[in-house]
Design goal:
mainly beta, about 70 residues, four-stranded parallel sheet, three-stranded parallel sheet
Length: about 70
């Protein structure tokens, strides 16, 4: 599943299986990545969103960052 555009929901998210690709922004809240699951955060060059500072990541899955932008 690939998410694009601004994510305006808040609250916790769990990636329990498979792969989730998030582009541009993540909503505030906690993100748990379960074992065997992957979250790819695709950041374009120079792309920064203050909401990212309000996201916490946890779990034993894989967090991958792609793109030239920063987290």
């Amino acid at each position: 599943l690939t998410l694009t555009g601004a994510q305006t929901y808040s609250g916790n998210t769990t990636v329990s299986a498979g792969a989730l690709v998030a582009g541009s922004t993540l909503a505030s809240g906690g993100i748990t990545i379960d074992s065997g699951a992957t979250l790819t955060y695709d950041r374009a060059a120079g792309d920064w969103d203050q909401n990212t500072a309000n996201v916490t990541f946890s779990g034993s899955g894989t967090l991958r960052k792609t793109g030239a932008g920063q987290l």
